[in-house]
Amino acid sequence: MLKKFDFTNTPIVDVVNEILVDAAKRGASDIHFDPHMDYMLIRIRIDGDLLDYAEVPNNIKDYLITRVKTISKMNITETRRPQDGAIKTTLEGIELDLRVSSLPVINGEKIVIRILDYSMSLEGLEELGFSEDNYKKLLEMISVPNGIILVTGATGTGKSTTVYSILQYLNKSTTNIITVEDPIEMDIKGINQVQVNSQIGLTFASALRSILRQDPNIIMIGEIRDNETAKIAVRASITGHLVLSTVHTNNSLNTIERLIDMEVPKYLLASALEGIVSQKLARRLCPHCMEKRATTDYEKEIFKAALGKEVNEIYEAEGCEHCHNGYSGRIAIQEVLLINQQIRDALAENVSKEELRDMVYGSNVTTLLQDGLNKVIEGKTTFGEVIKLIALDDDDKISNNMFLRAAISNSKKAVIEQDVKRDFKNIETTTSEQITNIEMNPTGEPIETMEIEQL
């Protein structure tokens, strides 16, 4: 049920503050202000899903957008071009660090506010959900004095959280750590952080050239976006520096291929690359209401083929007052590749993609699918969540297995049907609640019993 605000009697400043505080308390990662023809729809993203939150009348929406742009230090008179801003404040005892983006669309300006949460980074590497084997590999790769380590994944998969956790682990008084970021998402004491500013020519590449003259031990590059940055980063890693960075790729093999496509010489890549951490985020099962159920035939086939295990029971989401449809928070699913000498030799010798694939996944690598399924067995997430996240072509151990591909395809159909049924049930429940909240006035007309409804 949508939240309702009394825009007539409540100052717009208080409305915006309440939206920010409420979204933060609910654990939202983003707030969307979507302009429509007749109104503005506010949506919040919780555990990866966008949920309708409130509707704003057209005669109010411009005031609301102006307030958001003002406190994020944007130009309120500029409505035809995209803008970026930031908000740092404390409301009702909650410290808020927000990134704001505006985009002109057909019905006005769309505003998106990203709520930055550093709690996971501050808790340490051991709290990021790595399996015991993957955690040991990660510690081994970040213990080397020089080389390049890449954290990969799509937007919003927790790459920055992982990188910042690694930096916190490596942050010692005896080391000089310098980062170049766009934007700087977390201010870390003891680390020198550089903000990219392309308008004055301060790009990733130009900043890196200057950083190399600052006697760094460890360099963190917010993202490798182009060929020049990739080449400088790799060369920096072979001249005695440990380099951390992120790339938008799906898995370990795709990451190596992307760097080669960026014209990084294979002989340099062979000597520089130390490890790759690929990750996705799955919704975490609520510990208060999760229940065991028997696995289906398709699920048994997938567990058997991917893990070599007979799994007869797994946990399923139910839903309670402590969670959202059976889920509370998110957990990372990871693939960690520690580069060995065989892979280095293969890169230097320019072997084919098929041979490189065999070497990468023939080594001791737990794929994203395998790590996800193990977390299903542990009761950390659900089978449906893992199957929705993993693309068939991204996992070598299933891409050429037609029997397993068919089983996963059938499981995905079942998951979609289950989600549709759950959504339909939620719609029915909401409709029933709305009916019970309507009374008849003396004239026989229905009236709302509450002025403000909480979701």
Walkthrough of the structure:
With 455 residues, this protein is of the alpha/beta class. It contains 16 helices and 17 strands. Strands 9-8-10-11-7-12-15 form a seven-stranded mixed β-sheet, with helices on both faces. β10, α7 (227-237) and β11 (242-247) form a beta-alpha-beta unit. The longest helix has 35 residues, at 402-436. Residues 433-455 have low confidence and may be disordered.
Topology overview:
Layout: H1 12-25, E1 30-35, E2 39-46, E3 49-57, H2 58-71, E4 83-91, E5 94-105, E6 108-115, H3 119-123, H4 132-142, E7 147-152, H5 159-170, E8 177-181, E9 192-195, H6 204-211, E10 218-221, H7 227-237, E11 242-247, H8 252-261, H9 266-272, E12 273-285, E13 291-294, H10 297-307, E14 313-316, E15 327-338, H11 341-348, H12 353-362, H13 368-377, H14 383-389, H15 396-399, H16 402-436, E16 438-440, E17 446-448
Parallel strand pairs: 7-11, 7-12, 8-9, 8-10, 10-11
Antiparallel strand pairs: 1-2, 1-6, 2-3, 4-5, 5-6, 12-15, 13-14, 16-17
